[in-house]
Amino acid sequence: MRGLFARKPCRVSRAAALIAVLVLSACGPQPVYQVAEAPPTPRVGTVESIREQVEQAQPSGAGLVLGALAGGGLGSLVGAGTGRTVATVVGAVGGGYVGNQLEKSKTQVIYQIGIRYDDGTWATVRQSAPAGLKVGDRVRVTDNGLELVH
């Protein structure tokens, strides 16, 4: 006789859970800056322009995976036998599609900061935040981004 709190067998395989964890662990945050043609050594210059640009965010795949897991989980609650299997597969495919579409619709604001180096050359630094900079500020450009020079 089974008790009220008897454990039911898990329907999600360990392999599927492991794959989901591995895929999601690769979805780390993107760098907050990008230096076009980064100088080999830090260079000092003056901020000439700051331009805000809205771009489509790069999908990481997390929406696809999470949508598929949610859809498959919901599909497994429907029907019995072969019908349940079909509902689980259809739910996983549909959830993955919807999750991917939602993730692709996200946008992000990028700041393109124009720098005129002291030797007269020009560089553009892309950052997710202006970091309190304004036109005319003196900055040091490194491979890690911009540093305000005092």
What does this structure look like?
The chain has 150 residues and is an alpha+beta fold. The chain has a domain at 32-57 and 107-150: Beta Barrel (OB fold (Dihydrolipoamide Acetyltransferase, E2P)), CATH 2.40.50. The chain is built from 3 helices and 6 strands; from the N terminus they run αββααββββ. A 6-stranded antiparallel sheet has the order 1-4-3-2-5-6, with no helix packed on it. β3 (107-117) and β4 (122-127) form a beta hairpin. α2 runs antiparallel to α3.
Break the fold down into its secondary structure elements and pairings.
Layout: H1 14-25, E1 33-35, E2 43-56, H2 62-75, H3 82-104, E3 107-117, E4 122-127, E5 138-142, E6 145-148
Antiparallel strand pairs: 1-4, 2-3, 2-5, 3-4, 5-6
Helix pairs in contact: 2-3
Q: What would CATH call the class of the domain at 32-57 and 107-150?
A: Mainly Beta
What's the gyration radius in Å?
24 Å
Helix proportion: 25-40%
| Helix-strand sequence | HEEHHEEEE
Q: Would you tell me which CATH topology of the domain at 32-57 and 107-150 applies?
A: OB fold (Dihydrolipoamide Acetyltransferase, E2P)
Q: Trace the largest sheet across and list its strands.
A: 1-4-3-2-5-6
Strand content: 25-35%
